[in-house]
Amino acid sequence: MYIPKHIAIIMDGNGRWAKKRALARYFGHIAGAKAIKPVVLHCNDIGIEVLTLFAFSTENWNRPKIEVAGLLKLVNNYLDNMDRYLKYNVRMKFFGDLTVFSEDMQQKIKCVEEKFSKNTGMLFAIALNYGGKDEIKNAVKNIANMVKKNEIQPDEIDEKLIDENLYTKGLPMVDLLIRPGGEFRISNFLLWQSAYAEFVFLKDVLWPDFKPRHIDIAIDEYGKRNRRYGNVV
Length: 233
Ligand code: IPE
Ligand code: IPE
Ligand code: MG
Hints:
Helices cover 40% and strands 13% of the residues. It has helices spanning 14-20, 25-45, 65-80, 103-116, 132-148, 159-164, 212-224; strands spanning 6-10, 50-54, 91-95, 123-127, 176-180, 198-202.
């Protein structure tokens, strides 16, 4: 099978999953958090190099305070229980504008990344307070400062330099972007990195019901695509 290097997933549909069961949205997020591990392990098993999950967007702050608090609590719980991934040899990366989070949470994130850094398996990346536009804005600021300090000339700005100033520095471009939940949009996720990603929208599954077999379905579909990159044939 034709295996993508970098899979990115927009974990969507938790709220609708809860609503269908007459539960509060928070329970959808709990179920969503539970769906993560089998998917991560499966991707690691089949040789994916990078799996990036969209956990919280820069726009998600617009949700009711109580929902945001619930989501952050779940993220914190997740961070506290990362040790259960250690034996699977995955590496960890959290990215987005992490500066808005408490010192304590930022410290936890650093500790987790450090603890996993000697592993050699798949990179499991989690986008937190992430927005593609925010990321590009930050890259532009960094580069503008480099120009101001005369470290580079405007003419020297190329795609590589922009890549290096994104949160995803060093990661390969997204090959396959999967979105369950029934929405057909990118919602400000990995805008630059998805320039040539193949999109698979799984409209009949909500994230809490997402299983490793849905990864296989998406990879199967990916294998049928003809990635031309603007070329012919
Ligand atoms: C995705 O599920 C979880 C996050 C955005 C953090 P939603 O909460 O967006 O679920 P729906 O789209 O309302 O069903
Ligand atoms: C995208 O889902 C963000 C995450 C999955 C973290 P949303 O549910 O927030 O996106 P929209 O509002 O449908 O575009
Ligand atoms: Mg949603």
